[in-house]
Prior knowledge:
Structural class: alpha/beta
Order of helices and strands: HHEHEHEHEHHEHEHEHEHEHEHEHEHH
Strand content: 5-15%
Function: Catalyzes the condensation of iminoaspartate with dihydroxyacetone phosphate to form quinolinate.
Largest sheet: 4 strands, parallel
Family: Belongs to the quinolinate synthase family. Type 2 subfamily.
Pathway: Cofactor biosynthesis; NAD(+) biosynthesis; quinolinate from iminoaspartate: step 1/1
Bound molecules: 1,3-dihydroxyacetonephosphate, iron/sulfur cluster
Number of strands: 12
Shape: globular
Mean pLDDT: 95
EC number: 2.5.1.72
Protein name: Quinolinate synthase
Low-confidence stretches: none
Helix content: 40-55%
Strand order of the largest sheet: 2-1-3-4
Amino acid sequence: MPVSAPAAAAARPDPAAIYERVRRVIPPMEWASFADDVAAIHELKRQKNAVILAHNYQTPEIFHGVADIVGDSLALAREATRVDADVIVLAGVHFMAETAKILNPDKTVLIPDPAAGCSLAESITPADVRLVRERHPGLPVITYVNTSAAVKAESDICCTSGNAKKIVESFGLPEVVMVPDEYLARNVAAETSVKIIAWKGHCEVHERFTPDDIAEMRRAWPGVVVLAHPECPPEVVAAADFSGSTARMSEFVGAQRPQRVVLLTECSMSDNVAVNHPEVEFVRPCNLCPHMKRITLANIRRCLELGEHEVTVPADVLERARVPVERMLAV
Ligand code: 13P
Ligand code: SF4
């Protein structure tokens, strides 16, 4: 997705203009409780020379209200290399903040809640990766970006859901290892002739969707176009009309303008895309990511006020993790 700069990224954003954009997804009473934090965060960003990078799963008052750069994991990693500010606030989960730090070792990277984790990142350790390597000598190890810096440090290259197929095929080999998301690996394998050895990690949000959910939605909402994130089980992706990263789903809606659409992914994504497409009807089955939802306007404000919580990566891990992340960005 071309990385969008939300209205909030303007130098002196007008809170009324921000609300005008999000009024379809945030009721006026709710906005009243956000307005003070929104204004304070803009002032703090100016004082501290800080930027806010926000993932597509952040709530609309963050995504459209205070973020400077928004996007999928790939876009956030790419944009992190271009940031011209002293402080980066990562409104997203911990592995995203670590990736920003890996790419900006000399900048201060803050995360509003350090407990914002990820079930995929939790599913694998550096020792696991070393074991997989021992079991499959000579095969390149591709690590999904939803992993800790220490796991990335054991890998040959990283990938995101936006570039996984390209990365798998970039080796020109018949077989590769891709960890830790089993479903992403199987979904990518279905699109290429490369054999992929996978791990058993799953996203706790996307694994909950089923083909029966899709059948039920098609019955209840005739004509609905179904978009599924590739972290969904392969049977779900097969039953959908399109599969792609959060950025690709957003692009799909912008390019195809379906009359009625459902995004099989995290809840806030539909709100954020709906803001830009009032003509599209969004069906909203809601699976929340509890980790993404740890980030709030209140803790973003606090994090800028107090300079907490700083994300650090030990120097030796950072140096080793930077190699696979930079290789990914170069592909
Ligand atoms: P994207 O890279 O598609 O934004 O996905 C990140 C993520 O955490 C999905 O659950
Ligand atoms: Fe991790 Fe899934 Fe949450 Fe994304 S949605 S951060 S993969 S748990």
